[in-house]
Amino acid sequence: MEAFYKEYGLVRQHLDSYNRFIDYLLPEIIRDFKRIQINENTVVEIKDYSIGEVPLAKDVDVGEKEVTPIKCRLRNLTYSVPLYIEVSISNLPKTYKFKLADIPVMLKSKIDPLSKLSDEELVKLGEDPKDPGGYFIINGSERIVVAQEELASNNILVDKVEEGSAVTHVAKVISTAKGRRSQLIIERRKDGIFYANLRGIRIPAVILMAALGLTSEADITTAVSLDPEVQSYLLPSILQAQPLFPKIEPGEEVDEKELRRKCIEAMLEFIGSRVGVGRTREQRIERANRLLDEYLLPHLGTDSSEETRFKKAIFIAQMINKLIELMLERRGPDDKDHARNKRLKLAGDMFSQLFRFVMTTVYTKEVKQSLLKILSRNKRFELRDLKTLFKQGMLSDKISHAMATGNWPGGRTGVTQILDRTNILSTLSHLRRVVSPLARTQPHIAARELHPSQWGRICPFETPEGQNIGLVKNLALQAQVSVGVPEEIVEKFLYRLGVKPIVEILEEARVKIREGSSLEEYSGWCRVYLNGRLIGYHPDGRELAELIRKKRRNIGRNEEWLLEVNVAYIESKYLKEVFVNCDAGRIRRPLIVVENGKIKLSKEHVNAIRKGRLKFSDLVKKGIIEFLDADEEENAYIALKPEDVTPEHTHVEIFLPSIFSITSCIIPYAEHNQSPRNTYEAAMAKQSLGVYLANFQLRMDSRGHLLHYPQKPLVQTKFLDIIGYNDRPAGQNMIVAILTFTGYNIEDALVMNRSSVDRGLGRSTFFRLYSTTEYRYSGGEEDKLTIPTSDVRGYKG
C-alpha cells in the first residue's frame, strides 16, 4: 500500500493526463493547423514549436520575468509557460518566431520546475512539500479541472424501444475526434428495414454502406455477419435498396471497377437528394460526400480515402449486427451505467478541446483575415508586416478566460473550480472528484445508484446529499485512470498474434461467392474489437485473450505500452467476442495475480519493497500485480483475502479497505456503521478545521481557518499516515460524556468545560483578505498605504 502511494501519489490521474497533453495532444493539434491556405499564391506554415523552460508572467515594472507559484498567488498572476511557434509565409526568405500563447502550468507536472526539486528546495521557495499539485494558478487563484464522467465515445450501445413507437430497436454511437462530435443512430423499424439517422437525416442503412464502398449484396451481408440466420434479417433492407444497384444484363461483360463507380454514384445521388434538396446534381453529390467524410463517424477519419470509408461501412455493419443479435435475444441491451461504458475526461482532454477551439476561432481566423487585408492593400506581403499579423500571445486571453470562469467550448460550465483549501482532506477529495454532466433536476435513478462495476473504482460513501447525490462522486483510493496508447500500435500487435483483418475476409467472401461456395470455415471464429471497432476475426478468442495477458505480464524492451492494454473475452451460446481496450479515461485498479491457486506476490517481494530494492511499478512490469479495467474484470474471479484463494481464482485484492475514498478511509470501523452515517462523516470531515498547509503564513488566501491546537485522532486507520493527514491534522480529540446534568429536559444542549475552553479547546483564527490598489496620477500625485496616526478621522487605536 505504502509503495503504491509513494510512487503514484493521490493526484496521478491529473498529472498523467496533463503530461499526455504536453507530449502528444499539443503537437497533434499544431500539426493539424500546420498550413493555412490564404489564396492560390500564399500559404502560412508552422515550421516548428517550442515550450518555454521556465514559467513567465508580466510584471508591471519590468515586463515578463520568471515567477514561482507563491509569487503568482501573491501578485494575482497566472502560472504559465510561453508557447512559441516558428512560421513561414510564401515568398518570404525568413521564418518568424513569436509567442502564440501562455499555457497554464499544472503544479508538479513535467513542465513545472517544482517537480524536479527536493523538499528542502521547495521550502526555500515558500512551497509546502506535502502539497500534492494537480492544480493551476490563474490570476492568483488556485483552480482545478474537475474530472468529467461521460459515456464512452466511439462505442456502440444497443437498446430496445418501448412499444407504441415505429422503431423496435436502436443502436447509438457518439463519435468524437479532433474536436468533432457527431452522433449516429441506427434504427430497426417495424417493417424490418434498418435506417441510419445522422444530423436529423434518415437514410436507409444499406444505401449508406453501399455509398461507402460495400457495393454488392454479398459484401454487405458478410460485413454484417458470417451467420446465415443473422444475414437473413437484412433481406427487407436489401430489397428496398435493390432498385438503386446497377443492373447487369445476362451475358453482359462486367467491368467491376466501372460497376462499383456507378453503384457509389447512384447511392451518393440518393443521399444528396435528402441533404441537398433543390440543388444541382453536382452540389447534391458534393453535400453527400461532405456528410460521409466530415460528419459520419469522424473518429475513423475525415478524409475521402477508400480505406477510411471502408472502416465506416464496417462500423455501421457491426451496429446492424448488434441490433439483430439483440432482436434474436443473443445479447441483452447495453447497460449505460456499467463502468465499461464510462470514460473520464481529465485536465489533458479538456485542455486539448479548449486549445483546438481557440486555434480554430482565433489563430486561423485572425491570421487569414489580417493577411487578406494586407494583401488587398499592398498586393505584396513584406517582413515589416509580420509583427502586425502575429500578435504576441494571441490565444492567451481566451485560454485564461476559460480557465478563470470554467466556461468551456460547447456550452459546458463549471469545468474548472476554485480548489477547496479548508483542510488536507477537502483538498485531496476535490482533486479526486468525478462529476456527471446529467441534469440535477431530473431523477436519473439508475445513474445515481451505486453500480456493482464501481467496486474499487468509485467510493460507495462519499457523495453529497440532495440533488447532487450519485452524480458527484469520488475515486476510490487505488483507482487509476488510463493514459492511453495509439491504436495503430495495438492493431499491428493484434495482427501479429493471428487476428485476420476484416478486409481479407471480405476479399475471400467475394472469391468464394463467385465460385459458388460459402465461408463456413469462419463461422466459429471469434470477432475481435479494438476500442469498440471490429478489426478482424481469430480462430480461438480465449487463446488470444490469454496470449495478450501473458505478453503483458512478461513485457520486453520497448513494450511498456502493453501495460495500458486490457482485454476481455466473452463467450455465450451464440457469441464469441474479444474486446481489446487501449484508450484514455478508463478507471482501472491494481490486483495481485493468482496462477493455479498460488498468489504471485511473495514475502521476498514484500521485503524487497520495504527495503527500497523494488518499486510498485516493478511488480506491475513483472506481472505480479496488474491493472484491470471494468471490461477485463468481467473475466476475473477475485478473492477478497489471501486465505479465500482457490485454484479457480485469477486475482486477489491488495487491501480491501482501498475501495473507500480519501474522506471515508479515515472512518474507524466503517463496516460497523449504518451506511448513511459513513456518508455524513465523509461530508463533514471536509469541513473540519486544522492546518491546511504549512506555508499558510506566506499565502494571502481570500479566506482561511486555522485551528490553534490540532491533534491526531486517538483511533486511527492505516490510511491516515498514507494520505498525509497526521502531518496536516484537522480537529481535536474532545472527551465527551452523555449525561442528564441537572435532570431537566435538556435535549441538544452542549455543556462545555470552562477550563478546557480557557486552555484553547477548539480555538481557531479566521483570516480574510482585504485588498486595494495604489495608483499613480498625472501631475505627480500618487496613492500611499500607511498606518494611520491618532489625528486621522475615524482612528480607533
Automatic annotation (TrEMBL):
<dbReference type="InterPro" id="IPR007642">
    <property type="entry name" value="RNA_pol_Rpb2_2"/>
</dbReference>
<dbReference type="InterPro" id="IPR037034">
    <property type="entry name" value="RNA_pol_Rpb2_2_sf"/>
</dbReference>
<dbReference type="Pfam" id="PF04563">
    <property type="entry name" value="RNA_pol_Rpb2_1"/>
</dbReference>
<comment type="similarity">
    <text>Belongs to the RNA polymerase beta chain family.</text>
</comment>
<dbReference type="Pfam" id="PF04565">
    <property type="entry name" value="RNA_pol_Rpb2_3"/>
</dbReference>
<keyword id="KW-0548">Nucleotidyltransferase</keyword>
<feature type="domain" description="DNA-directed RNA polymerase subunit 2 hybrid-binding">
    <location>
        <begin position="666"/>
        <end position="787"/>
    </location>
</feature>
<keyword id="KW-0808">Transferase</keyword>
<dbReference type="InterPro" id="IPR037033">
    <property type="entry name" value="DNA-dir_RNAP_su2_hyb_sf"/>
</dbReference>
<feature type="domain" description="RNA polymerase Rpb2">
    <location>
        <begin position="417"/>
        <end position="481"/>
    </location>
</feature>
<dbReference type="InterPro" id="IPR014724">
    <property type="entry name" value="RNA_pol_RPB2_OB-fold"/>
</dbReference>
<dbReference type="GO" id="GO:0000428">
    <property type="term" value="C:DNA-directed RNA polymerase complex"/>
</dbReference>
<dbReference type="Pfam" id="PF04566">
    <property type="entry name" value="RNA_pol_Rpb2_4"/>
</dbReference>
<dbReference type="InterPro" id="IPR007646">
    <property type="entry name" value="RNA_pol_Rpb2_4"/>
</dbReference>
<dbReference type="GO" id="GO:0003899">
    <property type="term" value="F:DNA-directed RNA polymerase activity"/>
</dbReference>
<dbReference type="Pfam" id="PF04561">
    <property type="entry name" value="RNA_pol_Rpb2_2"/>
</dbReference>
<dbReference type="InterPro" id="IPR007644">
    <property type="entry name" value="RNA_pol_bsu_protrusion"/>
</dbReference>
<dbReference type="GO" id="GO:0006351">
    <property type="term" value="P:DNA-templated transcription"/>
</dbReference>
<keyword id="KW-0804">Transcription</keyword>
<feature type="domain" description="RNA polymerase Rpb2">
    <location>
        <begin position="152"/>
        <end position="345"/>
    </location>
</feature>
<protein>
    <recommendedName>
        <fullName>DNA-directed RNA polymerase</fullName>
        <ecNumber>2.7.7.6</ecNumber>
    </recommendedName>
</protein>
<dbReference type="InterPro" id="IPR007120">
    <property type="entry name" value="DNA-dir_RNAP_su2_dom"/>
</dbReference>
<dbReference type="InterPro" id="IPR007645">
    <property type="entry name" value="RNA_pol_Rpb2_3"/>
</dbReference>
<feature type="domain" description="RNA polymerase Rpb2">
    <location>
        <begin position="528"/>
        <end position="595"/>
    </location>
</feature>
<dbReference type="GO" id="GO:0032549">
    <property type="term" value="F:ribonucleoside binding"/>
</dbReference>
<dbReference type="Pfam" id="PF00562">
    <property type="entry name" value="RNA_pol_Rpb2_6"/>
</dbReference>
<keyword id="KW-0240">DNA-directed RNA polymerase</keyword>
<dbReference type="InterPro" id="IPR015712">
    <property type="entry name" value="DNA-dir_RNA_pol_su2"/>
</dbReference>
<dbReference type="GO" id="GO:0003677">
    <property type="term" value="F:DNA binding"/>
</dbReference>
<dbReference type="Pfam" id="PF04567">
    <property type="entry name" value="RNA_pol_Rpb2_5"/>
</dbReference>
<feature type="domain" description="RNA polymerase beta subunit protrusion">
    <location>
        <begin position="9"/>
        <end position="385"/>
    </location>
</feature>
<dbReference type="InterPro" id="IPR007647">
    <property type="entry name" value="RNA_pol_Rpb2_5"/>
</dbReference>
<feature type="domain" description="RNA polymerase Rpb2">
    <location>
        <begin position="616"/>
        <end position="648"/>
    </location>
</feature>
